[in-house]
Specification:
single chain, 8-stranded mixed sheet, about 500 residues, Arylsulfatase, C-terminal domain, alpha/beta, Sulfatase_N, 5-stranded mixed sheet, GAG_Ulvan_Degrading_Sulfatases
């Protein structure tokens, strides 16, 4: 069996044609979706990059594998691996190698995030460049395409092919951005009114603080023609969308080159193709732009497209809406290959969905986690989203938020004060889940272990960020942020979980 897993960083599903997007961003991806199945409610259990791939490749959420944030893998994390972990919960690639698969990766992810554990189980690991995730799709293909030309005809391989183009900063050739300018700007939200409201938002990657990096000359200015200096109006937002959508079109074109290489080798139709992402991207949700800094569905929902010869032919072009997590992917692939599913894996196989059937035990809600600009967890039941913030970072988010995504998909109205009973119920669900997982690992909650330290926040300290606000004459916002931080220990820390 040949399996190609295309892993595209920062890709929102609603910017792909096969998910209903009106711009021509993804003709090659759409072609695979038409031959297979797409999933509309597939989420990374933990976001962003580091915890997401840790969850996916361990088939366990961060609360169990120990990786819940963007910092280096903590000493207590089982992602550092030991013999017991290998026996009960091997990393996905180890499990495939044991079954005789040749596992190959084309990715700079491990270098970018100092995630040495990601190499475990790959027989071959190919570094596209020394740009640590800042390489474009053509640079990835320069290394990957020769491998496909030489080895695609061989049997029993699993290739992880990692692209970064939709991640900031959008460095595709300008012609791709210009091409997008020929089409109506979508989405329609945020509109001008919402953007003006966002001028008051505090935090990194917000409307008035889109660029914070002091190391760049031209402080607070974009260094890339594909991205605006700030989001001051709808025109700036459309500029940003043109850059993002152009990046997707650029990577899609180069994915097409890979498909062409497989076709030349005569194996395209025989190859299982999986297309997904590590996380999505916020474009106004909770006040953030071109960033993945909260536990919003804009960040944790990712595309999943699967074309699997011999399995998905009878459901070509279909869509499923069940609540799934990226920890489910390794069990599903193992199931499709006829392999056993390790007892230490938490994810659940959804092979039955690929076969056009139903799940035996579908989820009624999912638990999500985030650890970059904020420390957050969420409960999502398909309509209601409850967010518990453990550390707000440089944002002024309350400890608990509640959103009705059926009527407010962009999370503009926090309903926590209006529905205290629902907040209490969903918080109890979250805490019960935490308690259950901590009891399994006997290592404590990694989110609580790091709660007292501020998130990474693009390298901005509180002092540096306060100075940036003052340069915009925002002393009132500095005071708001200071007040928020003074409440972290008291208001943002839930009572200890009873053992």
């Amino acid at each position: 069996m040949r399996i190609l897993y295309i892993d595209i960083d920062s890709l929102r599903p609603d910017h792909l044609g096969c998910y209903g997007y009106q711009r021509p961003t993804s003709p090659n991806i759409d072609r695979i979706a038409a031959q297979g199945i797409r999933f509309s409610n597939y989420f990374c259990s933990d976001s962003p990059c580091v915890p997401s791939r840790a969850a996916c490749f361990s088939a366990r959420p961060g609360i169990q594998n120990g990786v819940v944030a963007h910092e280096d893998t903590p000493a207590g994390s089982t992602m550092r691996y030991d013999h017991q972990t290998q026996d009960e919960a091997p990393l996905w690639m180890h499990h495939l190698v044991q079954a005789g698969m040749n596992t190959v990766s084309f990715s700079s992810y491990a270098n970018r995030h100092l995630a040495g554990w990601f190499h475990f189980g790959f027989r071959q690991f190919n570094l596209s460049s020394l740009k640590n995730g800042n390489e474009n799709a053509d640079e990835v293909n320069a290394v990957a395409l020769p491998w496909f030309e030489q080895h695609a005809h061989e049997d029993n391989w699993f290739v992880h092919l990692n692209y970064w183009d939709p991640h900031t900063s959008y460095t595709e050739p300008l012609s791709y951005m210009r091409h997008m300018e020929n089409f109506p700007a979508t989405p329609s939200w945020p509109d001008e009114e919402a953007i003006q409201e966002h001028q008051q938002t505090i935090g990194a990657r917000t409307a008035r603080l889109l660029w914070n990096d002091t190391i760049w000359e031209g402080y607070g200015k974009s260094q890339f023609p594909t991205m605006p200096d700030q989001i001051a109006n709808r025109g700036d937002f459309e500029h940003l969308m043109n850059g993002y959508d152009g990046a997707i079109r650029f990577v899609d074109e180069h994915i097409g080159h890979v498909f062409a290489a497989l076709e030349r080798q005569g194996v395209l139709d025989e190859t299982a193709i999986i297309i997904s992402a590590d996380h999505g991207e916020a474009f106004g949700e909770l006040g953030q732009y071109m960033e993945h800094g909260t536990v919003s569905p804009a960040v944790n929902r990712v595309p999943l497209i699967v074309k699997w010869p011999g399995i998905t032919e009878n459901i070509m072009g279909s869509q499923r809406d069940e609540l799934l997590l990226n920890i489910d992917l390794a069990p599903t692939v193992s199931d499709a290959l006829g392999l056993s599913i390790p007892r230490g894996w938490v994810g659940q196989s959804f092979l039955s969905l690929l076969e056009g059937q139903t799940l035996t035990a579908p989820r009624s809600e999912i638990m999500l986690s985030h650890g970059l600009h904020t420390r957050q967890r969420a409960v999502y039941d398909g309509r209601w989203l409850y967010i518990r913030t453990y550390h707000p970072g440089l944002f002024v988010y309350p400890p608990q938020m509640l959103f009705d995504l059926d009527n407010d998909p962009h999370q503009t109205s926090d309903l926590a004060e209006h529905h205290p009973e629902r907040v209490a119920q969903m918080d109890a669900q979250l805490r019960a889940w935490e308690h259950e997982n901590i009891a399994i690992t006997h290592q404590g909650d990694p989110m609580r272990a790091i709660q007292g330290s501020a998130p990474v926040m693009l390298g901005k300290s509180f002092v540096d960020f306060a100075e940036r606000l003052r340069k915009q004459n925002r002393e009132d916002d500095v005071q708001r942020l200071q007040t928020c931080w003074s409440r972290i220990e008291k208001d943002y820390t839930p009572q200890p979980i009873e053992q």
